[in-house]
Amino acid sequence: MTTRLPRLAALALAGALALTACGSGGGESGGDSDTLTFMFRGGADEKAAYQAAIDKFTEDTGVKVEMTVTDADQYATKLQAAVSGNKVPDVFYIEQANLQSYVASGVLLDITDQVEEAGVDLDNIWEYGVDSYRFDGTLQGTSEGRLYGLPKDVGPFAFGYNKTMLEANGIALPDPDVPLSFDEFRDITKQLTQDTDGDGALDQWGTGLNVQWNLQSMVWSNGGDFVNEDRTEVTVDTPEFAEALQYFADLTNVDGVTPNASEAATLDTYQRWMAGEIGFFPVGPWDVSVYNDLDFEYDLIPWPAGSTGESATWVGSLGIGVSATSGNPDAAVQLATYLSADPEAQQTLVDANIQIPNLKDVATEWATAADAKPANRQEFLDIVEDYGRAMPASFTYGAQWYDELWVNIQPVLDGKQTAADYLAEVQPKMQALLDESNTNAEMAGGGA
Amino acid sequence: MSHTASTTAPTAVPAAAADVPPPGGAGPTDAHRAKQAMRRLHRTEHRWAAAFIAAPVLGFLVFTLYPLGYALYASLTRWNGLTAPQFIGLENYTRLLGDPYFRQTLWNTAFYMIGIPIGLVLALLLAIALNRKIPGQTAFRTIYYVPVISSLAAIAIVWQFAYNGDFGLVNQVLDWFGVDGPNWLQNTATVKPAIIIMAVWKGLGYSMLLYLAAIQSVPRSLYEAASLDGANAYHRFRSITLPMVRPVTFFLVVTNVIAGSQIFTEINIMTPTGGPEFSSASIVYYIVRQAFRYQQMGYATAMSVVLGLIVFVVTLIQFRLNRRNSFSID
């Protein structure tokens, strides 16, 4: 306690007046043996689904669970405040990118043995999901590391299209098994971009993508990447990368198949897609409950592929970790395991349309269900099992190097700077930040 | 500890006072005893005085000086906010000198200060206007004060809508005059002015209220004397009102500069990514981002220390300038 106080006070000072929002910490640390605290984030749908699953847990085990839920963008700050205040919740969501620092700080419990003893069949959970929370002291995301969490879910970022719009325009529906090439994708989107009511302004576009979430797919399928395999070198200055970014920017500036920057800023493309104005748009599992109620039919396809001819996209994941200082670690691990791997709990969460199943056998059944909507749910599973990758900064110590790429990218998207010029300019800056982050990782690892 | 001191004191002090011998009752033989009683009284009073002083002093030590000292130390460390800090000397400060975002956010923050003189001039004009007897005077005063008491977060969200390029209120109004407004918050050239306009609007009522109080306390006789001497309205404003409200102006400039250097909430809400090409990010926004998004607590603390120093020096200069220009009337 005595060493915590000054740090906490300095923490408050560091943020000057700005930190009023971070004052309230998480739940109490679990001194009470039959009450656990669980901190997570999400909207109303998610909260309701988790409440239902946890009520069942309490009914079965007699362990009461106190839930603290926050908005998505406040979660990291609140969790850190709880950690600094020595009030770590017993069970909490953990982001891939923060795992290493929380392990190094001794906040997360190593649950490898307890999960094994509990007889959890880890082979039946997505490998990517489980490995995301493994850390061997140097690399995260490999299958050898100790386990510091279980996946809450995996989030394959799929690509979808407005079936109603394509049919109305007499365009052949894309093959769910063969990805479109960049050229084919451009041609189709050009046909879709129209002024349907003849008032002189476009009101239907081929697509409308967000560089921060959609560029990865294009870069990877074009043979480029953000960082080398041992995460020491930033590789955004390759011709493959530049070509993909240029293609992305040209969709707006040269081909004109997306809303332009100011159109997109005023009503974002997400809203326009839901209004039926956009032909092709990404679909995540968390979107399904909303998209299923839209006025048009949609379905999933592989992402358009660049020079490699192979689709690529990212898979997100959020983990459930257990506090190393929990007063009741056994029950806490039991809760984490229950939420991640219990078939009944999974069914509750999947039925709420907020995620895809964590368990492979449940997922197969779910994908082939006759009333599946979207029909090609299998695409989600293909991404997780086959062609999805982790976000570039998921397994590095902090994401500052990666965020740097987006800060000054606007001139490229506006067509005022070429992709190659920009990438050559930003690479050294990103490299310096990645070096810094790797140094931090070493020092945190050594100092723990 | 301040709590116990303040609750026990009122009952204890009268009890100590009861030891004092009644005045006039002390003869020459009682002088020695009286002196002793006096000394006892002084001792108790001193003790209570010390207790009262201790409360704020201890508060200052625990909640200001200690964190400040710790922040100075933390700024010399590599620290992620979770593990123990590691001493690295001045590395954070050398890094800061070469950090383009630090310079840029410092510049952005300085740019926002343009709003201060604009706000003060408008507030003074408004105060003068509302000092006249016009119908609905109270209603107007209230209207201008409403933004001051409104939540800054709520205001920022409302203005974010107002600045929307397509259907925002600001561009709709401009459209009536045939002006095609920009997409305010997405444009490097307009995002800072947009935030300044909002900040001026938000702070107007507060400055106006202080000016109004200052104007009303100017003695009428000064104006009367000046009128008799043939001074017109401009002269009266220039030579009486303006100098008489100078202390308020000084107070507002100092507090506005200090508050302005910590501008954060409106930036964080209206431009969550720091604006196009980081053109709206303030220094505190950057500090918070480093501290809580990238867990660079040590580096963030170093920037806070530099910011604190800058604010301190600027305030010092303001006090010096004010002393040189100050005057008094008999």
Automatic annotation (TrEMBL), chain A:
Keywords: Signal
Superkingdom assignment: Bacteria
Pfam families xref list: SBP_bac_1 (PF01547)
InterPro entries listed in its UniProt record: Bact_solute-bd_prot1, SBP
Position of the signal peptide: 1-23
Keyword Signal: yes
Annotated Gene3D superfamilies: Periplasmic binding protein-like II
Name of the molecule in the record: Sugar ABC transporter substrate-binding protein
Organism: Cellulomonas triticagri
UniProtKB/TrEMBL annotation, chain B:
Membrane topology, record value: Multi-pass membrane protein
Pfam families: BPD_transp_1 (PF00528)
Entry-linked SUPFAM superfamilies: MetI-like
PROSITE patterns hit by this protein: ABC_TM1
Gene3D superfamilies named among the record's database cross-references: MetI-like (1.10.3720.10)
Cross-referenced InterPro entries: ABC_transporter_permease, MetI-like, MetI-like_sf
Cell compartments where the protein resides: Cell membrane
Source taxon at top rank: Bacteria
Ranges for domain ABC transmembrane type-1: 105-318
Transmembrane segments: 48-73, 110-130, 142-162, 194-214, 244-264, 299-319
Segments for region (Disordered): 1-37
Keyword field: Cell membrane, Membrane, Transmembrane, Transmembrane helix, Transport
Record-stated family: Belongs to the binding-protein-dependent transport system permease family.
Protein name: Sugar ABC transporter permease
